[in-house]
Design a protein that fits this description.
The protein has 105 residues and is α+β, with helices and mostly antiparallel strands. The protein is 35% helix and 41% strand. The longest helix has 24 residues, at 48-71.
Length: 105
């Protein structure tokens, strides 16, 4: 599955627009990591536990986006975007979306 942030695939024509494909996940860290993260906010610096959590969330959202597009019969997803939001303390939602298309050829 081709995923691109641009609205076309260079050298390829779009045969059919299939609709919006999405993938999302809400993830959190366990209590121990959350407590350690709160200490890190006192001294500053990267909170690696949350960085890892968001990397994992993006990976899952990407997989779900690809599954959503494949279920529509897509070859590619154009105009891919990520969004994220805090759902509650220590938990974040990552959503990925784009236009699922069938390519010519």
């Amino acid at each position: 599955m081709l995923l691109t942030t641009i609205d076309y695939v260079p050298g390829r024509d779009t045969e059919q627009v299939l609709g919006m494909a999405t993938g999302s996940v809400v993830m959190s860290k366990h209590m121990g990591k959350d407590v350690m993260a709160s200490f890190k906010t006192i001294v500053g610096g990267e909170i690696k536990g949350y960085t890892e959590m968001l990397e994992d969330a993006r990976r899952v959202a990407t997989q779900r986006l690809e599954e959503s597009a494949a279920a529509m019969g897509a070859d590619a997803v154009l105009g891919v975007r990520f969004t994220s939001s805090a759902v509650m303390a220590g938990a974040a939602e990552v959503t990925m979306y784009g236009t699922a298309v069938k390519l010519k050829g």
